[in-house]
Amino acid sequence: MKSLVNLTSFGTLLCSLVVAGTIAATAQAQPQSGAISAPNVILNVQPSSGTCPQTIGLWWFVLPYEGGAEHTVVADTREFADETKLPSSNNKQFVEFVSTLRSNYASCVGKTSEQGYTFYNVEFKNKKAYFRVDLRKIDAPDRLITYKSVVASRPYVRWAIAD
């Protein structure tokens, strides 16, 4: 019986060491850059008049699962606006955030025009920027905005899509 207890203790210790070693090896294999500090998607701004930012950055993360994916997008409006608001709406396929433009961009009239990301767009007019996520532009049976908020003065949207 005593040898069974010793064997069990040894097995527990060995298993713990293997798990710890696997975690350490995996951590070393991952990039050491940490958080993504710069947006990973850039939308070009097509100005009509006034002084406009050249681009709008988005942090866009996708978590795929069988039959669909969950998407998280954060617009980097802090480059041209200090305040962003989320008007009240119960629409589960469309959301629009309104940001008041800084004085150096207040004259901007224009919009983003990206063929690959038509469901994300920003329009500049009336001293404001309107960031929109429009899932109605996606051809899929099921798509739904699951969360929307302003986080750190930036538009934050989580949405899901399924086949």
The string of secondary-structure elements, in order, is HEEEEEEEEEE
Helix content: 10-25%
Sheet/helix structural class:
alpha+beta
Order of adjacent strands in the largest pleated sheet:
4-5-8-7-6-1-2-3-10-9
Question: Mean of the pLDDT scores?
Answer: 82
Compute the CA-based radius of gyration: 23 Å
Strand content range: over 45%
Beginning-to-end CA distance, first to last residue: 56 Å
Q: Secondary-structure map with pairings?
A:
Elements (H helix, E strand, L loop, with lengths): L1 H28 L11 E9 L5 E11 L2 E8 L5 E5 L8 E8 L7 E4 L7 E6 L2 E7 L7 E10 L2 E9 L1
Antiparallel strand pairs: 1-2, 1-6, 2-3, 3-10, 4-5, 5-8, 6-7, 7-8, 9-10
Label this structure with key terms.
single chain, 163 residues, alpha+beta, ten-stranded antiparallel sheet, 1 helix, globular, disordered N terminus
Task: Describe this entry's structure for a reader.
There is one protein chain. With 163 residues, the chain is an alpha+beta fold. It is built from 1 helix and 10 strands; from the N terminus they run H-E-E-E-E-E-E-E-E-E-E. The longest helix has 28 residues, at 2-29. The protein is globular. The model is unreliable at 1-32 (pLDDT under 50).
Q: Gist?
A:
It is built from 1 helix and 10 strands; from the N terminus they run H-E-E-E-E-E-E-E-E-E-E. It has one helix at 2-29, and strands at residues 41-49, 55-65, 68-75, 81-85, 94-101, 109-112, 120-125, 128-134, 142-151, 154-162.
